[in-house]
Each structure stands twice: as C-alpha cells, then as structure tokens.
C-alpha cells in the first residue's frame, strides 16, 4: 500500500464524489469542462493573426552541415500544432522542406 501522501483517494466519499461527476472541490466536472472551453475560446479570440515560415532540412547540400534525422518530421509536427492548437490558417503557413530548402 502506498503511503497516504501518494494515494489519490483518501476516503470512499472522495471516490463517490468523483464517480458522480463532482470534483473534490464541489464543482461538477461538466462545469470544469465548460469553464476550460470558455477560457480556451477567450485565449483564441485574443490571439493575433499569425504567419509562419517553417523550414526542415535533414540533409544539407553543404557538407559543412551535419545530416539530421528528424528536422523535416519536426517541421510537419510544428505545422500541425499551428493549425490545430493555434488555429493558424493554411494560407498563413509556408513549408519548405528537404532539397527545396537548401
């Protein structure tokens, strides 16, 4: 058994509260989710218009630069983050990867 400080539930009442949709603070999980969505919408409304130039090069033409293994994949992950999490428009994102970027 874990020490008391490491247990998630300290009493059956804690478990019952969470199982019924109430948090331990007395605020329902629906209210918490609604508040989270509202905060997210407010943050998005305050975000400025964003533009991005994303460059990913695994193998550079100049031999002075070492080859990389994940730069191009990372560029696509950044693009997806900008689109999904920050709602950046496709037309505001320019991707340049691979040989096109060297």
What does this entry look like structurally?
Helix content is 39%, strand content 10%. The chain contains 3 helices and 2 strands. The protein has helices at 12-19, 29-46, 71-84; strands at residues 52-56, 93-97. The chain is α+β, with helices and mostly antiparallel strands and 102 residues long. The model is unreliable at 1-12 (pLDDT under 50).
Flag low-confidence runs.
1-12
Shape: elongated
Note the main sheet: 2 strands, parallel
Task: Estimate nothing, just give the exact number of structural domains.
Answer: 2
Q: How large is the share of residues in beta strands? A: 5-15%
List SSEs in N-to-C order. HHEHE
Overall pLDDT score: 76
Instruction: Please give the share of residues in helix.
Output: 25-40%
Radius of gyration: 23 Å
Look at the helices and sheets and give the structural class: alpha+beta
Oligomer: single chain
Query: Termini separation (Å)?
Result: 58 Å
Topology:
Elements lengths: L11 H8 L9 H18 L5 E5 L14 H14 L8 E5 L5
Parallel strand pairs: 1-2
In short:
With 102 residues, the chain is an alpha+beta fold. The chain has helices at residues 12-19, 29-46, 71-84, and strands at 52-56, 93-97.
Tags for this model:
alpha+beta, single chain
């Amino acid at each position: 058994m874990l020490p008391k400080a490491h247990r998630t539930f300290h009493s059956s009442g804690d478990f019952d509260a969470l199982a019924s949709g109430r948090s331990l603070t007395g605020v329902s999980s629906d209210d918490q989710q609604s508040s989270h969505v509202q905060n997210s919408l407010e943050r998005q409304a305050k975000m400025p218009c964003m533009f991005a130039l994303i460059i990913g090069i695994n193998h550079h033409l100049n031999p002075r630069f070492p080859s990389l293994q994940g730069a191009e994949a990372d560029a696509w992950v950044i693009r997806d983050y900008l689109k999904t999490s920050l709602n950046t428009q496709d037309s505001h994102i320019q991707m340049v990867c691979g040989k096109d970027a060297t």
